[in-house]
Amino acid sequence: MADETIILRVLRYRPEQDSEPTFQEYEVPYRKDWVVLDALNWIKEYKDGTLSFRWSCRMGVCGSCGMMVNGRARLTCNTFLREFYPNPITVEPLVNFDIERDLVICMDPFIEKLKRVKPWIIREDVKPVEDGPYEQSPAELYRYKQFSMCINCMLCYAACPVVGLHPEFIGPAALALGIRYLLDSRDQGWDERMEEVASHDGVWGCTFVGECSEVCPKHVDPAAAIQQGKVMATLDWFKRLLMPRGQR
Amino acid sequence: MARSNEPAVWSLFAGGGALTALILPVHALALTILLPLGVIEADSEKLVAFLGHPLFRLYMFVLALLGLFHGAHRLRFTLIDLGLHALATPITWLCYGGATIGSLVALWVAVSF
Amino acid sequence: MRRPYRRPMPKTWWLKHPHYTLFMLRELSAVFVIYFALWTVCLVQRAGQGAEALSRFLQTMKGPGWILWHLIGLAFVLLHTYTWFATAPKVMPVRRGAEKVPDGVIIAAQWIVLLIVSVIFVVLLAATT
Amino acid sequence: MAELLKHDVVIVGGGAAGLRAAIAVAERNPNLSVAVVSKIYPMRSHTVSAEGGAAAVIKANDSFEHHIYDTISGADWLADQDAVELFVHEAPKELTLLEHWGCPWSRDPDGTVAVRPFGGMKIERTWFAADKTGFHMLHTLYQTALRYVELTWYDEWFATKLLVDGDRCYGVVALELRTGAIRGITGKAVILCTGGAGRVFPFTTNAITKTGDGMALALRAGVPLKDMEFIQYHPTGLPGTGILITEAARGEGGIMVNKDGYRYLQDYGLGKPLDVNDPRHPVKRTMELGPRDKLSQAFVMEMRKGRTLKGPYGDYVLLDIRHLGEKKINEKLPFVRELARNYAGIDPVYEPIPVRPVVHYVMGGVDTDVDGRTVLDGLYAAGECACVSINGANRLGSNSLTECLVFGARAGHHAAEYVASAPDPNDSVLQKQVEEEAARIRKQFLEKTEGKERLVTVRKDMQNAMEDGVGIYRTEQSVQQALEKVLECRERFKEVYLDDHTVSFNTELISALELECMLDVALAMCHAALARRESRGAHQREDHPNRDDENFLKHSLVVLRDGQPKVEWKDVVITKWPPGERKYGADSGLPTDQK
Ligand SMILES: Cc1cc2nc3c(=O)[nH]c(=O)nc-3n(C[C@H](O)[C@H](O)[C@H](O)COP(=O)(O)OP(=O)(O)OC[C@H]3O[C@@H](n4cnc5c(N)ncnc54)[C@H](O)[C@@H]3O)c2cc1C
Ligand code: SF4
Ligand code: F3S
Ligand code: FES
Questions:
Q1: How many CB atoms lie within 10 A of CB C81?
Q2: If DSSP codes are grouped into helix, strand and coil, which group holds residue D559?
Q3: Confidence (pTM)
Q4: How large is the ipTM?
Q5: Which of C65, D170, D451, D498 has the largest CB neighbor count within 10 A?
Q6: Position C3 in a domain
């Protein structure tokens, strides 16, 4: 067992020397309980310190280690080598993002999109801290709970073709987050947030490919969030149409 | 960003999707396959009466309206996704314009029976 | 020093994974939805021209080419139905208190409604003709 | 040379403490410009992996008195009691604020916030968001912070040095990962919130990023590190990876058994076990709900008696939660189930989870007062990298997330006031320091042409030395050995040669800078562990097995004097709770019990 190895084909791009990305092959020891991230770390530590990638928690919760593994967007810290052994594994940076270097992508557009949906509680009347927490029944909590589980790993952005075709699209994770706040019983920012969520770049950009939910490692189901967002936006639209301004 | 007026067409799309998902399988099977094949035997006169019944004509119109808008909506996005992003605006006009004309024709057929 | 590299999205992206291809087929079902809607308009229009015109129309439709075409259409329509029903619980989740009604229940309920509607449709057609 | 990036307050770290501090500054004075410098995107910070919960008194059956007593006795009386009192009183307010900001706390049926018991607590008071509390807290804080335009985000900037002019701190030197640029980020106050240092050890629950950077930066700037000998082992980590199985698993009723299926904790002064089906199980401050130091020490004893199981990653025992049933596990401990399935290959609904003690938390840190102030004017610290101290010799589970909020906020508020009156920095002095630091990094790592050491071997040798010498049980000899090895590693570090000499996103360079910090932190830990010749909480000296209040009811302070580490001492603040015996099990002493 100690001598078994597996091949990793890794996409390399070093902005200081490469004009475009190329694949580099590494032979890595094969261990049943190793994840792809372990193999990458082994390469970095013992073979080639120039390979760059992001990671932190190694337990699937910080969201930094997303990459394309054999063409699928995965968290490399919970994708095991044994799933592929003895076949070679291809590792690439997440698609639909610019490559900063090697397996590291540029996150700027994602952070901008997060901000757009105003992912914070908006209130007209702020309760003083001394008066204690808001009440929220378990049923109210469960309305949005699932959509609050997103770890910002961006796998869904790599999986969603609309993100690739239409870079302005706010995208699955950020929209799910916006909808999470719309569904929170403590929030009063409906109108403000709807401006973004119900915009052209918002839920209406989604053609319900559904792949975002397929790859989501945390079962957030952003596709569901967005479709519910469409229903919410539609009801809202008719309401605005039928009701005179003052009564809204 | 401003709110989009997409709900206008999306509600037609969604209504059409629901209606066609429910009725089109049996509709297509019975009318476009079984009827011509004679598996469902029908007397021509009676069939005319059935198809000409106000309720069926109403149904035909609703099916056309919602079905066409449902289809137009999907077609629009599919064409754009297939790489015609630059033509998004004309495609949109063409699709919904076609659906509107189709619906008007259906209305005319239904009324002028 | 930064020089971010942008990868182009290939036009054939929808062939890259079976899920994407299935998505495209689902979207393609729209063509047949449009087709069957228009076909029905024609059918009624012929009926409006009288029994004879209608018979001729149906006679044409008996041709194997037409039947094959309609069978393909039916398959796409079924794909549409299947995918539409499958997504309903996502679009409009039903909750009882904190618990979500399982997706399977909602999907099954829709198929049952479909069955009832289909039976009514066929019975009406058969009974009146 | 590039311009200095000027702000009013510079916060280093985007975890719970850093983000809370940032919000505090912005709320206190919206006219201030705040830099948030973080070596990883803030929502990746290790706070994200905290599972179990955050403690604060909220329910009617609880009282401040209880929380204070649990904390102080848990700390083996090494906590400053004024700090603990203040902490306990501010805790509910901070967690409530988080609730107002949208944190999805788990709820009781009546819509109030739910609480669960944690180890070492007499009354359950841990707020939780299922078993992803840290994740929800961090994302709530990050998302809330996004609304403040006063904040400038330096995401993926690595702070390498504090800028000090005279006796004040004026900012940091930081390296932007994607460009490789080394710049000065200046302000009249700096708040270090860089988190813990678990990665100094080979086997830890901590993320790769927890390398004690802030502690090392402070130490190098002449600021003392307090109580560095106290390193918390968490009793239930997964063998191999060290991934944490939260204490909440025991809080909900999980039990620990040895290879004979025996609940061995009863042999170590932690009370008598109740049947898992007994409605009174789990009893607080008893058995599985004893404090972490005791549970980890019990494991070592069991191992010595040969009553643990053997696996490819060393000895282990079993954590059994099967009796909770699938429904409760899914509702209260879904992440535990996910982790056990993924990383231990077992489903805890049907099988017990293999666990062993694993390095989890550093009680010590940058010496601060209750406002986060250090001895260096303008330098503040909060969160795990600081030592206030409320954790003393052993931190109570779920106090740390709350600590990040309470003291992050206090440091932020104080810093906002301080910058109003602090003198302006002398830019040319700072600029010069930036240039020197940039030159040092280039020379030592990027422009180096030879060297015979690989990063990984030096790091592993240091980690193993620490585990062997400064683990759960220590002796003078073992610590001395570790110290010598760490010194040797520091020498070898000078010989490290990197593969990567480019500037954009050079992660190997970052690893080198982190190792440099860890070596300093390890050194401080060894010196403190040598100096404390007693056993207290997480510091168990087999050559001095008893607690010695006469000589060591004191905080150790490691300082660099002329480049050499020295250990000094500082009195513990005792107000109302004189040192007593730590009792767990049936007769766990409590002030209220005596009434
Ligand atoms: C697995 C696990 C579970 C835990 N569970 C609980 C629990 O249930 N309850 C509880 O109370 N506590 C728990 N803890 C402890 C608690 O989570 C931590 O003590 C706390 O989150 C620390 O927060 P922090 O803000 O101090 O640091 P971190 O969250 O670690 O953040 C450190 C920040 O500093 C930045 N940083 C570090 N170095 C540099 C540098 N050189 N330059 C720039 N930026 C830098 C990082 O980027 C990061 O943003 C747990 C800990 C672990 C490991
Ligand atoms: S929705 Fe899922 S896939 Fe997308 S970023 Fe969040 S956790 Fe990742
Ligand atoms: S994949 Fe994309 S198109 Fe919509 S359903 Fe998901 S966001
Ligand atoms: S390393 Fe944190 S999610 Fe993989």
A1: 21
A2: strand
A3: 0.95
A4: 0.95
A5: D170
A6: no
